[in-house]
Design goal:
Length: 313
């Protein structure tokens, strides 16, 4: 069997497995996507006072005598997230029923909770209990088929809030790539890799482009603290995410002709590809082996486009 290349760098301190070519390891060279969001309805509020001395009174929405917002779930010490179209603020709380007393602001110079919310649908969320982090990645598992000793199956995994036991979503996902639709400041729109978005440019570094490509910073951006150069600011201009997945049939289909095994994966420079004639050989992806045995499987690409709300302030 051909030798495998060195693994790509292991994941950071986020609970993901290192990349490798054995069961339990992350599939090398596949992308990882982490999504963070605030779940739940939150609660409308009225504030007495301002800033670090504010008292926030939660007013869950009642329709026909029935509360349509989530049950209030605050206890003393939970962090509250106050949001409006003008900004947001996180503060630790003292809790008495539906009354939250600010007990230390995350940023004393940023958006302040106060009694004037204007026409915005300003709401309070429980940042500790309802802020969710979900990570998607590919991981190898051992094939339990006795006719396929030593074979690895690539599986799409989902890890929620750093859980030690991730969820298995679907088997047979060999490739996973994300590109990000970014609207530049001049109105042009391009799909970039994560590293290109990080560098604020679609041109190779060095040097990285200045934030000239980015939309203006949000109103709460404090140049006295953060300076005039906002690193990685193109992430604020991401309007959509394109997902490319290459799936296989997991089990071998022995009556497949070689021509039937040809597949297209548009992320690679050579779109139309044919697995090695030897089913025990390793697959090549843009000339790089990632440890996946070719087998005699059908492979098909699936593409999805997801719009995201961004730069809304």
């Amino acid at each position: 069997m051909p030798s495998a290349p060195p693994d790509d760098p292991p994941a950071g301190a986020d609970g993901l497995p290192d990349a490798g070519h054995v069961a339990g390891k992350r599939v090398p060279y596949a992308d990882v996507l982490t999504i963070r969001y605030q779940r739940g309805t939150g609660w409308p509020f009225a504030a007495v006072g301002s800033g670090a001395t504010a008292q926030v009174v939660l007013n869950p929405t009642i329709v026909g005598g029935v509360q349509v917002d989530d049950p209030v779930n605050f206890v003393t010490g939970d962090r509250a997230l106050v949001t409006s179209c003008g900004g947001g603020q996180i503060f630790t709380t003292q809790v008495a029923g539906n009354v939250l007393t600010a007990n230390g602001l995350l940023n004393a110079t940023a958006f302040q909770p106060n009694g004037t919310v204007g026409s915005f649908d300003s709401r309070v969320f429980n940042f500790d209990r309802d802020f969710i982090t979900v990570t998607y990645y590919l991981q190898y598992k051992a094939d339990t088929n006795p006719d396929q000793p030593g074979r690895l199956i690539p599986v799409l995994m989902r890890k929620v809030n750093g859980s030690a036991t991730p969820d298995e979503i679907v088997q047979g996902v060999e490739r996973l790539d994300f590109t990000y639709g970014v609207q530049f400041r001049n109105g042009t729109f391009k799909y970039l890799t994560a590293s290109q978005v990080d560098s604020n440019s679609d041109t190779p570094a060095p040097p990285p482009a200045l934030p000239v490509n980015c939309a203006p910073p949000p109103p709460q951006w404090d140049t006295s603290i953060y300076g005039n150069v906002e690193p990685k600011c193109l992430w604020r201009s991401v309007k959509s995410v394109q997902v490319n997945m290459l799936l296989d049939s997991v089990d071998n289909v022995y009556d497949l002709q070689q021509a039937d095994q040809t597949y297209r994966y548009t992320v690679d420079s050579a779109n139309y590809q044919t697995p090695p004639l030897d089913p025990t050989a390793l697959m090549l992806y843009n000339g790089v082996q990632n440890g996946m045995i070719a087998g005699a499987m059908m492979r098909r690409e699936f593409i999805s486009m997801v719009a995201v709300r961004n730069s809304n302030y």
